[in-house]
Amino acid sequence: MKYKNKYIRNFNGLLMSAMAALVGMLFVSASIHAESMPASGAAATPETPAAVAATPETAPVAPAPEASAAPAPEVAAAPSGPQPLEERLQLCAGCHNPDGNSVIPENPKLAGLNVKYLNRQLKDFKSGDRTSPIMSSIIPMVDESEFKALAQYFSEQKRSDGATDKPDLAAQGKQIFDEGIIGSAVPACSGCHNEDGSGTDKYPRLNGQNSVYVVNQLTNFKSGERKNDPKAVMQTVAKRMTEQEIAAVAEYVTTLKEAQQ
Amino acid sequence: MKTILSMCVALLLPLQATVAQAEDAYTPKVYGKKGYVWDEMTPERVEVLKMTGDPVKGKEAFRGCRGCHKADAAGVREGVYPRLSGQHASVLIKQITEIRAGIRLNPKMLPFVEDPAIAVDEIADIAAYLNSVESLRENGKGPDDMSARGKKLYTDNKCFTCHGKNGEGDAAKAFPVLAAQHYGYLMREMKLIETGARGNSHPDMVKAIAKFSQSDREAVSDYLSRLPDYRTLNAVPATK
Q1: pTM greater than 0.90 (yes/no)
Q2: CB-based contacts of A146: which residues, under 8 Å, 6+ apart?
Q3: CATH C-level class of B43-229
Q4: Do B116 and A230 touch (CB under 8 A)?
């Protein structure tokens, strides 16, 4: 077949997710049975009630014999109501640095990202449209009314430059970033993100971004784990890229410097 | 358990039907065979043709296309991606809506052009923008100048009836501009028209190409690639 059938691939995805859903249903029903049994036997392990209380989704469903103890940790974990920006920033600074130029390779630099883009990501983390092991546990503490000020703050910070110790890999990445990959119909990144990686409100700033973070995001777009790209365009592009190409382009992005205005 | 199994079957049945349709969508559509449609006024196409495209909005909407077709819509010299600058809005609207409808087969481009990657009104805007934009880079020509033989073939086979004496196409009938298109792109599309892999080829085009040898195709493509941008031919700005 000359043309890869995208619908077939979608179908496989659907089939897999349908199967996963079935497995999930079986698992849930099994676990409900398992949970109800020790409860009736009154020999529950000490961890069980605590674990149930920690996950708010399961709390109302599962029978909680010690329900009176459940609300306490929840209140402690999430401060009630919005917090002043300065205090809230301390929470963000732990991972993203006070000026938004994260020095931890896995964490993104937020400095200089477009305000609309930042706002959308915060909303997506809140709604669950975007997930991350860390952000998904942090975001319930932040009130939605705080997003605008947080996005504004980080968008106004100056993005720091990055550096690479793999210039050859970065050079390969430049080719992909500027020209795309013709054989596998990968568009040039510069088309949407601009040649200097400065981005727009729809397409995020990439210059100086931590390469490990970029690799992780492209990998998640490729696998479909991240799917909050507005028009699924990034998922399409990432699916057409190999791991090596992803590594190369991420390495180049780190070295990009914003063009002088 | 039985309930779960029957739910499984219920889930799979409609999916089976989707696959059958999907396979159909990428089977080459050969002239004279079932499923072949060369031109269709789909409701979407009718809707877009009624709109007045805004080239300024179109320039921004085209951002998502620039990764392949480049910022000046010049495409790629080798012809992997066509030059779109100066193409008639009516042609661009036909092609985009027909790709979205699965009438023209273009699996590589489809994810970037289907809803919601491009909204309906953005089609009109992009078409207006591309019709007015000027490509700064030169297009790809054939390896040797075969334009004299190409011109004779173009004339003898009356290609000008649809594509115009200067390769300027026909905006009213949605026949494309061919002048200054990349040689490589013209060669590839003739192949796709021949095999039906393009999907929406005009029946007369299918017949005309059937008569062309490989070297005839090379000569005609080379001739067209060497024609100047039709908009430069008269001082009067081209209408759409």
Answers
A1: no
A2: A82, A83, A85, A88
A3: mainly alpha
A4: yes
